[in-house]
Here is the input.
Amino acid sequence: MYQSEADIRRKREENYRREKEITEQLLRNLKGRWGSVLAGIIPGMQDAINAGPRKKVACPINNHGDGKLTKKVLGDGRVQVKKSEPDFRIGKDFEETGHCICTCDNTMANGFRVIMVYHSCTFMEAKQMVIDFLGGSLVADHVKKVERPEASPEEIARADAKVRDRLNWMWEGTFDPKHPRSQPMRNWIESRGLPDCSDIQNVRFHPSLRYVDPQPVGDLGKFPAQVALLEDINGRPVTLHRTYLKRDGRGKADVPKARKQETHVSDRAPSGCAVRLDTFQFPVLGIGEGLESSYAARAMVRDLGIPMWSTLDAGLLRNVVLPDWAKVVIVFGDRDRGMAGQVSTYELVDRARNEGRRATGLLPPFAIPEDAKSIDWDDVVRVMGLEAAKRLPIFLQWKMKLRQVLREMGQPIEALERMAA
Here is the structure.
């Protein structure tokens, strides 16, 4: 029987709402029980649970961090030997959310994502694994629940005040990208093969931030850093993200984890937030993952008058809250071996469409290099050059389609002329 496009869309929206309700019910029922669930689905997870949120263990996801020595041949022929240090730990909110942290994957913000990474499966498959573990039910009352001791309002207020003071101190110590003291940040952007980005918003330069890693390296001293401000959909500041740089900015600092995110106060969370590289509004919004990849995408759409946001990682990309004024969304995703970038890109595209928006996802149209874990739009611009990247067939096709969409939306002729240029 023939189904109209409206019928197909209505059925898709009904399926989306039904699956969303199932997911929300599971999340409610699993709160405080994620430890038991993940320990039953992922071998080796119990070691991390026993260690707690402050101690790192060998990663049960990719079996690294077990103390073994690895060798890597550098470009000049020298052999670099590194000891595989433990770097996996559960988050402080692990029992409530399933949140895990590891250098091998930065998208494990909840239990479903941890299962997806371990089993290389889709969200629907991960959800079914959880349901199967629960005995084919959405009810989890038979699974042991771990209650976190509740902090008093006074304790929460004191902790929030410390976090707020630190965030304010850090941001107040930064300089605008155009400032003479921000030369290392400009060098960093140039070293990534990017054009001048000194007009970006909400990303600034700090000349001297301390690097501390609780385990195992401790205090490594102070380094210059690129500092980005994460804001929620209402424009409220939530937290800061740091990229530690070499003294001259021509490369990341030689530290275990050059990119770090600050904590946040108790009534705000990074989920749904973004770094607004542009603060103006237009019916079309560009969204990228990492900062440098988003800088590259911004350079590609700059002459089209499209604002660009960055979500910093794949986990935040899939959950970003879109503004009402963004009727058309273009997602510049990463291509990852673990598929995190691809999955997040198309999850956001699907959600945007279900919200009644036009949405497209663009991934770098090249294979991932053998010695790399991923490829992003900064890699594309750095290798090809900006003008060549703007002539890529997938970009030109999207640009042509966008012009047609804007015409249908009744956009002013100057917007259409920019699309045609």
